[in-house]
């Protein structure tokens, strides 16, 4: 009996099938059950302690500027956090193939060790180079070891519930750490000089749990022990992930290359990767600048505008779960296309908003519709991957496009806008146009699949 681990043959002539499938050795996809749901539970902690740790850098930047690294500039300090986020995406190119080769638990163990060890060494750091080595490089590489496995493993345990379970995994990050795909604004502050000119209490918050822990404990226990407690929390959660998570798809008998270069011969993979890059160029501009806009344009007080980002993240929780639930019935591409278009329309609508009620509504709605763009890509990669044994490799490759989009988006927007003079419109148009471009590219991918026989759920 053929295994469900490989999808039915596609009419895409460019897709390269595994030359030696071994259906008899691959267990049937459970699509539920205790073991499958434990993977979602464990994946939540992997995201929590990859993006969650990185999103904590906002409070560290504030402390470093005031105390430990006070002789360094804000831009120099923020490179520590920027390096963390960039390495998380970059390491995915390697961790994806390693995942596919069956070394899933080694990745979790290595990532857990590097994250915890990096934070412990950070607690002992006294100079800039020590902090950037420990918190920037060790934690960044460790987070990269955890990130791709956290989304790839869920895709191998579910079929009809795949989008919903992936959405719940991503929403767990929103509940716990604000947004698993959002680098903290302080981390990104090197992108724009206008942002660095704001006072500390005007800068939007990064995460939720870890920053609160550090802020509450640092005055009482000191920097070193507050950081160690964050590390011990991460250690406890990652031990749970290591205990409950299991690889379902057996590794291939023959070693595969680190990159699946055949993917670049497929129009579907190239189109999706381009759409992901374009969408992520514009996707996070509202997350980054809405609180600043609230202070400068709608005259919200600093303490009030501070909460616009949590409202946006709250909307993102629903935006990761509900579209995933519908995507399992209607198709992930059928859901991401309209959500991307509506997200772009909302950013265009931002051009006409100059009052507080409108900005609150915009924040909630944009959080919802942007959430689908974040949570659905892993299931689309699974949809266009002929062999599920390559799912980790292809996720790592496609997420790299998203990473570079995220990396260049805010620098370009920062060069266009002028915070001091309250000129946001040019950057708003840029973000909206990039979102439109991403949505059009996703729609083109849907058309490609339509022409090749997938006329229904896709």
Automatic annotation (TrEMBL):
Q: Which UniProt keywords apply?
A: Membrane, Transmembrane, Transmembrane helix
TM region positions:
77-99, 106-125, 131-158, 170-191, 223-246, 267-287, 307-326, 333-353, 365-384, 396-417, 429-449
Kindly list the GO molecular function terms attached to this UniProt entry. transmembrane transporter activity
* UniProt-listed InterPro entries: MFS, MFS_dom, MFS_trans_sf, Proton-linked_MCT
Domain Major facilitator superfamily (MFS) profile residues, every copy: 36-455
Cellular component (GO) terms are:
membrane
Where located? Membrane
Pfam families membership:
MFS_1 (PF07690)
* Main subcellular location: membrane
The UniProt regions of compositional bias labelled Pro residues, in chain numbering, are 1-10
Q: How does it sit in the membrane?
A: Multi-pass membrane protein
Q: Where is this region: Disordered?
A: 1-25
Q: Member of which family?
A: Belongs to the major facilitator superfamily. Monocarboxylate porter (TC 2.A.1.13) family.
The name this protein carries in UniProt is Major facilitator superfamily (MFS) profile domain-containing protein
- The scientific name of the source species is Ramalina farinacea
């Amino acid at each position: 009996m053929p295994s469900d681990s490989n999808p039915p043959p596609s009419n895409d002539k460019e897709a390269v099938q595994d030359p030696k499938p071994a259906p008899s050795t691959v267990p049937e996809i459970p699509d539920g059950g205790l073991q499958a749901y434990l993977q979602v539970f464990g994946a939540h902690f992997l995201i929590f302690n990859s993006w969650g740790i990185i999103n904590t850098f906002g409070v560290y930047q504030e402390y470093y500027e005031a105390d430990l690294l006070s002789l360094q500039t804000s831009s120099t300090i923020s490179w520590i956090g920027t390096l963390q986020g960039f390495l998380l995406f970059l390491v995915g190119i390697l961790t994806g193939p390693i995942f596919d080769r069956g070394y899933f638990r080694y990745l979790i163990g290595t990532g857990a060790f590097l994250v915890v060890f990096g934070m412990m060494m950070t607690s002992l750091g006294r100079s800039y180079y020590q902090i950037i080595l420990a918190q920037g490089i060790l934690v960044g590489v460790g987070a990269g070891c955890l990130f791709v496995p956290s989304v790839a493993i869920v895709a191998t345990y579910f079929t009809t519930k795949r989008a919903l379970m992936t959405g719940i995994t991503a929403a767990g990050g929103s509940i716990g750490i604000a947004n698993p795909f959002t680098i903290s604004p302080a981390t990104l502050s090197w992108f724009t000089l206008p942002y660095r000119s704001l006072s500390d209490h005007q800068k939007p918050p990064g995460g939720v749990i870890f920053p609160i822990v550090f802020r509450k404990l640092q005055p009482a226990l000191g920097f070193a022990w507050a950081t160690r407690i964050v590390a011990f929390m991460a250690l406890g959660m990652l031990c749970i992930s290591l205990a409950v998570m299991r690889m379902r798809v057996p590794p291939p008998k023959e070693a595969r290359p680190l990159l699946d270069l055949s993917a670049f011969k497929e129009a579907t993979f190239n189109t999706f990767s381009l759409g992901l890059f374009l969408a992520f160029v514009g996707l996070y501009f509202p997350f980054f600048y809405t609180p600043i806009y609230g202070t400068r344009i709608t005259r919200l007080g600093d303490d009030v505008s501070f909460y616009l980002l949590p409202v946006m993240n709250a909307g993102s929780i629903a935006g990761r779960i509900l579209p995933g639930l519908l995507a399992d019935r209607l198709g992930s591409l059928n859901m991401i296309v309209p959500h991307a278009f509506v997200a772009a329309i909302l950013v265009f609508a931002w051009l006409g908003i100059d009052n507080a009620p409108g900005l609150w509504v915009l924040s909630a709605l944009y959080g919802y519709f942007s959430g689908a763009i974040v949570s659905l890509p892993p299931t689309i990669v699974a949809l266009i991957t002929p062999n599920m044994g390559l799912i980790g490799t292809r996720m790592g490759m496609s997420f790299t496009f998203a990473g570079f989009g995220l990396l260049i988006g805010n620098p370009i927007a920062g060069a266009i806008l002028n915070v001091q003079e309250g000129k946001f419109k040019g950057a708003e148009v840029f973000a909206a146009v990039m979102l439109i471009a991403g949505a059009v590219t996703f729609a083109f991918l849907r058309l490609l699949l339509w022409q090749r026989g997938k006329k229904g759920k896709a």
